[in-house]
Amino acid sequence: MSWSALAPIALLMVSNVFMTFAWYGQLKFPSAPLWLVIPVSWGIAFFEYCLAVPANRIGYQVYSAAQLKTMQEVITLSVFAVFSVTYLGEAIKWNQLVAFALLALAAFFAFHEW
User: What backbone torsions phi and psi does residue 64 show, to the nearest 5 degrees?
Assistant: First the structure.
């Protein structure tokens, strides 16, 4: 696989770690004031954008926009699943696993050429 094919995957994985913390990291701090949580989350999200934008720019050389979006969603849910178990201490339920499996099936159809 070429650099143009692998770089977007790596960049999107790291960018999703930042975005997951920006959106959901504050859930462990329910007493933190919202006026503080919002700018901190924006600051974290800035780094997500610094990685996601180049990921899509590089990836569009190899993948279609629909494929990039599908890849983004699969990576987002994968990162979130790990985050919710390890950081938030939540268990993954059977219905969520079914949803993830259906998303994987959607990715198959997005990347499969008929």
Answer: -75, 165
Backbone angles phi, psi at 4, to 5 degrees: -65, -25
- Name the amino acid, one letter, at 74: V
Name the residue among 16, 19, 22 with its Cα closest to residue 71: 16
Whether 52 contacts 11, CB under 8 Å = yes
The residue type found at 110 is A
Quote the pTM value: 0.85
pLDDT digits (tens, 9 = 90+) for 45-78: 999 999 999 999 999 999 999 999 999 999 998 9
Distance from C-alpha of 11 to C-alpha of 17, rounded to nearest angstrom:
10
Say which residues have a Cβ less than 8 Å from residue 44's Cβ, sequence separation at least 6: 18, 19, 21, 22, 25
Ordered by start, the domain boundaries in the chain are 3-111
Asked if residue 102 lies in contact with residue 77, where contact means CB atoms within 8 angstroms, the answer is no
Alpha-carbon radius of gyration of the chain: 16
Contact by Cβ (8 Å): 44, 18: yes
